TrEMBL record:
<dbReference type="Pfam" id="PF02841">
    <property type="entry name" value="GBP_C"/>
</dbReference>
<feature type="coiled-coil region">
    <location>
        <begin position="479"/>
        <end position="676"/>
    </location>
</feature>
<keyword id="KW-0378">Hydrolase</keyword>
<dbReference type="GO" id="GO:0003924">
    <property type="term" value="F:GTPase activity"/>
</dbReference>
<keyword id="KW-0391">Immunity</keyword>
<dbReference type="GO" id="GO:0071346">
    <property type="term" value="P:cellular response to type II interferon"/>
</dbReference>
<dbReference type="GO" id="GO:0031347">
    <property type="term" value="P:regulation of defense response"/>
</dbReference>
<dbReference type="InterPro" id="IPR030386">
    <property type="entry name" value="G_GB1_RHD3_dom"/>
</dbReference>
<keyword id="KW-0175">Coiled coil</keyword>
<dbReference type="InterPro" id="IPR037684">
    <property type="entry name" value="GBP_C"/>
</dbReference>
<dbReference type="Pfam" id="PF02263">
    <property type="entry name" value="GBP"/>
</dbReference>
<feature type="domain" description="GB1/RHD3-type G">
    <location>
        <begin position="35"/>
        <end position="278"/>
    </location>
</feature>
<dbReference type="InterPro" id="IPR027417">
    <property type="entry name" value="P-loop_NTPase"/>
</dbReference>
<protein>
    <submittedName>
        <fullName>Guanylate-binding protein 1 isoform X2</fullName>
    </submittedName>
</protein>
<dbReference type="InterPro" id="IPR036543">
    <property type="entry name" value="Guanylate-bd_C_sf"/>
</dbReference>
<keyword id="KW-0547">Nucleotide-binding</keyword>
<keyword id="KW-0342">GTP-binding</keyword>
Amino acid sequence: MATEVHMPGPMCLIENVKGQLRANQEALGILEDITQPVVVVAIVGLYRTGKSYLMNKLAGKQTGFSLGSTVQSHTKGIWMWCVPHPQKPGHTLVLLDTEGLGDVEKGDNQNDCWIFALAILLSSTFVYNSMGPINQPAIDQLHYVTELTDRIRSRSSRDQDEVEDSDEFVRFFPDFVWALRDFSLELKLNGEPISADEYLENSLKLKQGIGQRDKVKELNLPQLCIHKFFPKKKCFVFERPVHGKKVAQIESLQDQDLDSDFVEQVAEFCSYVFSCSKVKTLSGGIKVNGARLKSLVVTHVNTICSGSLPCIENAVLALSQTENAAAVQKAIAHYDQQMSQKLQLPTETLQELMNLHRASEKEAIKIFMDNSFKDVNQVFMTQLVTELETKQEEFLKKNEQASSDRCLALLQDIFSPLEDDVKQGIYHKPGGYHLFIQKTQELKKKYYEEPRKGVQAEEVLQRFLQSKDDVTDAILQTDQELTEKQKEIEVEHMKAEAEEATAKIREEMQQKIEKLLKQKEKSHKKHMKQLTEMMEKGQGRMREMQQRNEQLLQEKEKCHEEHMKQLTEKMEKAQYRMSKMEEKIEQLLQQTKSYEELRKQLTEKTEEARVQMREMQEKFEKLLQQKDNNHAKLMKELTENLLNAQKVYKKVCQIREQLQQEKIKLQEQVRHLEKSQCVIS
């Protein structure tokens, strides 16, 4: 269950000692105990601008973060206050108050840049606090945002072809809120009232200028960076809370003592932060809790102290390695707990132990998956599986040892009366060997009836009986007075018992083999049924394709016959016309020379008719060629379908042959087992 941390007051998270940043171990311990998702709100701004007052209001307190009442900066480093989220149950609100920027006592701008960068890296909502309206001096004071690309890297390595870090920052950066304190202007633009957000957008518009392009570009740089890094922006204006020197006593003043508009504006600011601030997330949508925030703090501070640039990718990688290692240990602990609670050694069978191991292993892997992220190349998953396999081997050895110990204790307890009788010489007489063997069989039966002997039951029994071979031989040697007939009877009796035991073992093995064969046969029939269905479906498809092809051929032939018939009719009509024309020509030739010109015209028409005849003949030949091509294409498709069907049938035959070979191998194993039993008997 997620734990909820209640801090009575703020605590320094990142100390600033003589310009050196250092994480406070006590504060890190508080973060380590927070398992809830965290909403991280950081505030940054010039010193002595009232940042701490807003953070106290977000904490729901009148006092907490030090406000101070002089021109000297009070907050040093970054201070933290963890409180239950007022609107999101199961979440923790982490408030980060930073030391004032631009403190003349520090004299080093580098420290301010790192404080600004850390506030960006750690928060999900970033509040920039400034005094008065947004003008060029106010924007110039926000020059830290232009240096972010020189202070933060998104990835550990970057090729020239890859996107620049600055283009990727937007995926990791927090939401931006600009708080304008002691704001006395009227929110109007061109005589029309505007909202604080519209005022912000208008103030961040790029300046246009003619000439001195570099100077204009330099002036627009903060606006460009804010637009680029913070697509989601919000603005709040706050009037002066009180007038005169009462500002120094603001901690002790009640709301009724403050300006009513200011009180309303603070309430609106707090409401927005509570309802709109998101949970701090990493790449891949991974939600950050207290322990993960602690890891980010340690990684970034150590990187800065080493002289390197904080890298978001490296921080996430370091966090993933820490959490994945912890996830492995958590999974192993759960596995050990489940096995210790449910496992009772020795187990009756090996399968009982394996089933419990697999169930516990499955739960352990699920716990690892729920608590890990970014397991690159499955390194930690492989480590977990390896450790679980090692533990499995350990449990197998423990199970065998527990079984051996239990069986040996049982045998010593069961056979102790027999050993006492042997010491007293009860079996050192004629017929004593038979009585000894009979008693041994009774005790063996009693041993077999004992429950939970484990996997070593038979092996320990055989070792125990072998250790008593000297006693058995001694009793047999003293039983010299038995007659030859009695000896033969005894031998036959022993053989019968041995044969009965062998037959029983053979019968059990035969039953197991038959059961295995039935399962194999059932599986074989199932495979054959599936293959038969596949063949029948394939043959059905082949028949359908063949019928479809035959129909297409018939339709093509029918169409071809119709075309041929039409062409024949046209040719006959043309021939008939030609014959008629020839008859007319003959008649005209017999006429006078006055009709010579008419004959010439008729000759030309005849020639045209012959040309038409040749064209019709060419079309007829093309149709014949097209028919041959279509027929060849259909035959090729039919041939390919038949080849595919043959391949399927060949594959089915191969599978059937493999199944037959497996069946033959199984029969050979059965014969081998039967031979082994015969040798044993």
